[in-house]
Each structure stands twice: as C-alpha cells, then as structure tokens.
Amino acid sequence: GPARAAAGGCSATSIVPSQPPRARMAAVTSAAAPTQGHGGVTNPPLGGAVAGSSAAGSSSGGPSFSAQARALYVSSSAKAGMDGVDSEKIAEIVLQTAANSPFTAHQRKLDRAVDRRVAKLLAAKRKVSEPERAAARATVAARRADLEASRRLERVCVVVDFDQFYAAVAMRDRPELAERPLAVGGALVLTANYVARRWGVRSGQPGFVAKELCRRGKEFGMPSVELTFVPAEYEKYAEVAATAMEVYREYDPAVSCGMGYDECSLDLTHYLRRRVRCGVPREGEPGGVRTGA
Fold first, then answer.
1. CA distance 15 to 32
2. Does residue 54 or residue 246 have the better pLDDT?
3. CATH code at 92?
4. Per the domain annotation, does 145 fall within a domain?
5. Could you tell me if residue 7 is inside a domain?
6. Among 88, 233, 239, 263, which one carries the catalytic annotation?
7. Structural domain includes residue 70
C-alpha cells in the first residue's frame, strides 16, 4: 500500500546510478552561495532590472521578473501544485538571491550561446530566396501527407509518471514531513513536496535559493518558514520502483524497464482487448481491482 503510493518506474534488475542526471547538476551549484544576504542586495541587473522593489520589473517597460527568470533558469517555470503563487514576486526573489552566484554566471553563459545560435539562424533565414522557401514548403507538405497516410492508431500506450516521487518516498518513511515544506537534495533541489511548492520551491533550483524563498514568504503572502532538506536515497527509490514494475507487468507483460525511477511507458493494447473480450477481471486477477492498495 504505502510503497505503491510512492512507486515509480524501473525494473528490479536496474542498476542504481551512483549519480543520476539531476544530481550531477549539483556540481554547478555546489559553490553557488550568494555573496550577499537579501537584506542589502546590490546585485547587478539581470536582463535590465533587479532591484529591491517590484517597480524595477515590468512597470519599467523592460521584461518582467518572471520572464527574466524563465530565460535564465529552467526551474522558474511552474509545476503542479504552484497554482495561485505570486510568480512575479518569487521570480524577483530568485533573481536577487542568485544574481552573483556561479550558477547564474553559468546560466548567463548558456543564454549567450543560445543568442548566438539564434542570430546565426536568423541570418541564414534572411538569405533564403522566395523560390527556395516555396520549394521547402512543398517538400514539407508532401512529407506531412506521407506521415499522415502511414499513421496507425491500433495501439494504446500510456506514460505513468509519479509526482514528487523522491519526496513521496521520504514522507512515506517519515509522515511528520508531510505537512512541512520539504525538498530532497542539498546543493540542488531534486524534488519538492506540494507544501514547499506554495513557496515557489521546485526541482532544479539551487538549494540556497529554495531556502531563501521560504524565509521570505511574507513578501508574497505566505508565512516565513524554514525549508526541510532530506538527502536522496537511491536504493529506496529503486526498491519502490521495482514494486511498481510488478504492477506495470500486470498490464503490459512486455515492459522491461522504466524511464527512470518514477516514470514508465506501457503498451495497454493487449490488456484492453482482453478486457473487452473477457469482461472486467475479478479482484485478485491480473488487472483486477485491488482493495487497500
């Protein structure tokens, strides 16, 4: 029951990675503590304006704080559980807190590289003649028609993705954490529970930024709180994912490995055909209703 509630997708024989992709990002943020506290931020502007008041944001005619943050940080986009949060104020705090960090310097470098690629593509586009554009459109239209003609819709596939998986495992083992703002990780937030998301905390954020958001909650209508961090426990995630794999195989016996601990792709075609042909299975049979699960 509890294990199933926090399960994800990976086979029982999968190798537990010593450093999953999200954890490797921590190398970028390990030295990313801000050079100043939030009380007297004198960070240089990011994208035109980062100051101590919201007046320096969108009201000045420049890009909004949220637009600036999204341009630099993948972790500034919204996730489930973040409806109704003051995204503009949260983005302002993120920018103020992280402006002088090595993490932001790295993101600026990546952003400049993207700008250079875009400029190169636009320059190439300007050199394309109208006859060449017309020929390209005709080629694309023909290819689209070929793909549409070959489309097959006989199979039913689904992707199972467990939300806040790492946090769910932590809360399963320590139920007292369920009502607290909780993040898994350290230098980098690997995932956050739904409570923490009300403070704008989410996966991909540097740990010091996530902590600052919780401490400055009063600035966007939330209380000031301390964020609880717990370390990642990959062996536990693998165990729970193996339990989930047992369930997946009741619906798709051919599934062999998930796309990570918390995600799996299933082909339900044969299962659904059997359901239509034989009726709804009884409890205890493969695909049957499970009470108490």
1. 31
2. 246
3. 3.40.1170.60
4. no
5. no
6. 263
7. yes
- Cα diameter, the chain: 70
pLDDT in tens, 122-143: 999 999 999 999 999 999 999 9
**Which residue segment(s) compose the domain that 116 sits in?**
66-126+152-278
Residue 29 within any structural domain of the chain: no
pTM: 0.65
Q: How many domains does the chain have?
A: 1
Q: Is 176 a catalytic residue?
A: no
- Integer Cα distance of 205 and 46 in angstroms: 17
